[in-house]
Structure to design on (593 residues):
């Protein structure tokens, strides 16, 4: 019997090690969100100066929590592509033929990729504290919770997607196709409550909404939902999406 | 040591295994058994269905038809149990090239359930075996093709499986490394491990395997011990006469036929004759006697023991595609008279 903890650990180790060895990935993953904050966040802040819109803070302060979650979301969701790389380079066979439980393997993989997304979220959060001085550093703990749960579930969704779509092109296309509405309806750019009726209700089906709201509440006190609700929604969607990933990976073959 | 046919335990059973890809039968009703402790080989050209058979037996693919058992567990309904008993060396590289050699083995050991206490020691042993100790801490992307293959072999053996599947184990390796791997496979057999291997090198099949199944276009076309398979084709004797006269050759061929020394005799070109026989070493001296009776000089006589290549040729009418040169075991006899 293979120790599932060993399998979880080694998959986690491998995902994280690969990331740490790839300098370009580290740099891009942190610089990109900073560009969002500087160009979009500061740009809107100047454009809307003197017209306090969202709870009286400047736009960057409102937007920065959204950027942290977006960074986490993009990294987590896109990380599923490594499953396709592994399939392409034969490494997936090594995993598929192993006696370790596939659920343990996929959980380790999700944990590894989620750790990477979380690290990135932390780096972006630190940058955000420098750029938007009104953010409350004491909320950092809740941000970690929101970032971790968001990473877990979207890594899970990415892996599910990669198990079904076996080409890089297909994955990239569908990933972008799904990412766009999820990000725009996440509340990162504007409060979802201000959307016209059908959209404002639909938005609450988007798991990203709860991560953004929890982060915003923690850093600015401007969240619109109770923390307990955000937490419950994040836990539920994490369980569901990790479950999907395990289910689809359990059926994987090399074909 | 393994001896075929001695009340043996079946560890791999394939019954009519078939795998179809978009109407193309990659593996077509393949049926065979492998016994505990045996080295069993699938010999056939590239594209014959060898790798697909391994994929089916190692539960990486589901068969379209047929059934199979590995170590007593069904490949259809108990894939996890099958995976616990086997080790696989895939034909293509299955290493993580971003990780180091050591890390790849560490990874392998843990997902194959090697106890951590033993793992470090085993990794050291395996790295020593494949002579990659100095490369242990380098990323695999800096390894040459041969080094990657050796590391992969180390990984396949690391968890000491009960049944080992080797898909073209020595593909692209230099002769020295190849021989070392053969020695190691024999060593594994002594330890009681059953080996199923595929190869398109007939020398590999001849040297290593207790039994061989010849596979072509998805079908097993012959199966048995190597000597049994070779017994189905005769030995070839090749003679060069000093005389270039067609009449002399004709006369000599007649004499050989009437003396009952050969079934089929062919004239290759002026003065060169080839014939097939069951027992070349007994027949050769008699050929020389016939020649001296007719007062003919034999410049050169050679005989060619049958190889699995000849078996394949006889069964399919084709040569093993991209098979190796140099595997022919021939004994040359040169005889000159003044």
């Amino acid at each position: 019997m293979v120790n599932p903890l060993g399998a979880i650990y080694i998959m986690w180790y491998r995902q994280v090690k690969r990331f740490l060895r790839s300098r370009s990935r580290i740099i891009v993953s942190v610089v990109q969100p900073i560009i969002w904050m500087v160009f979009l966040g500061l740009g809107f802040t100047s454009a809307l100066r003197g017209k306090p819109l969202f709870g009286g803070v400047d736009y960057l302060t409102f937007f920065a929590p959204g950027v942290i979650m977006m960074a986490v979301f993009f990294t987590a969701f896109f990380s599923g592509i490594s499953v396709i790389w592994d399939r392409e380079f034969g490494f997936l066979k090594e995993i598929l033929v192993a006696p370790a439980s596939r659920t343990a393997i996929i959980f380790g993989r999700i944990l590894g990729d989620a750790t990477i997304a979380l690290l990135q979220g932390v780096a972006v959060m630190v940058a955000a504290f420098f750029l938007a001085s009104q953010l409350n550093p004491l909320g950092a703990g809740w941000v970690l919770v929101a970032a971790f749960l968001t990473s877990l579930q979207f890594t899970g969704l990415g892996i599910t997607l990669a198990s079904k779509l076996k080409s890089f092109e297909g994955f990239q296309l569908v990933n972008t196709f799904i990412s766009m509405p999820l990000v725009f309806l996440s509340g990162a750019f504007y409060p979802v409550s201000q959307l016209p009726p059908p959209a404002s209700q639909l938005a609450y089906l988007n798991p990203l909404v709860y991560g953004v709201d929890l982060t915003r509440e923690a850093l600015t006190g401007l969240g619109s939902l109770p923390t307990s609700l955000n937490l419950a929604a994040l836990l539920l969607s994490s369980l569901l999406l990790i479950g999907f990933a395990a289910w689809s990976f359990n059926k994987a073959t090399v074909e | 040591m393994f001896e075929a046919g001695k009340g043996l335990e079946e560890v791999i059973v394939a019954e009519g295994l078939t795998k179809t890809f978009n109407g193309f039968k990659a593996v077509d009703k393949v049926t065979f058994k492998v016994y505990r402790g045996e080295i069993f080989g699938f010999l056939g050209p590239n594209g014959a269905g060898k790798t697909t058979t391994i994929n089916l037996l190692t539960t990486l693919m589901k068969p379209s038809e047929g059934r199979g058992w590995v170590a007593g567990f069904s490949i259809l309904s108990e894939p996890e149990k099958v995976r616990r008993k086997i080790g696989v060396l895939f034909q293509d590289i299955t290493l993580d090239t971003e990780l180091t050699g050591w890390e790849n083995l560490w990874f392998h050991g843990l997902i194959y359930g090697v106890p951590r206490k033993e793992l470090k020691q085993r990794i050291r042993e395996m790295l020593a075996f494949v002579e990659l100790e100095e490369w242990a801490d380098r990323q695999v992307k800096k390894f040459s093709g041969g080094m990657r293959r050796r590391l992969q072999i180390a990984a396949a053996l690391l968890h000491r499986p009960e049944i080992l599947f080797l898909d073209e184990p020595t593909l692209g390796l230099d002769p020295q490394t190849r021989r070392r791997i053969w020695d190691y496979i024999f060593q594994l057999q002594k330890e009681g491990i059953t080996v199923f291997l595929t190869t398109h090198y007939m020398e590999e099949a001849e040297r290593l395997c207790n039994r061989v199944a010849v596979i072509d276009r998805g079908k097993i076309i012959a199966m048995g011990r190597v000597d049994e398979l070779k017994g189905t084709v005769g030995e070839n004797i090749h003679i060069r006469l000093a005389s270039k006269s067609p009449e002399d050759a004709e006369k000599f061929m007649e004499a050989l036929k009437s003396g009952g020394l050969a079934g089929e005799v062919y004239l290759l070109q002026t003065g060169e004759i080839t014939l097939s026989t069951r027992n070349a070493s007994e027949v050769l001296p008699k050929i020389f006697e016939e020649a001296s009776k007719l007062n003919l000089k034999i410049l050169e006589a050679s005989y060619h023991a049958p190889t699995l290549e000849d078996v394949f040729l006889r069964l399919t009418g084709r040569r093993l595609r991209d098979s190796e040169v140099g595997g022919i075991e021939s004994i040359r006899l040169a005889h000159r008279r003044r």
Notes: DSSP finds eleven helices and 15 strands in chain B. Chain B has two domains: 10-230, 233-334. The domain at 10-230 of chain B is CATH 3.40.50.300 (Rossmann fold). Residues 175-190 of chain B form the longest helix (16 residues).
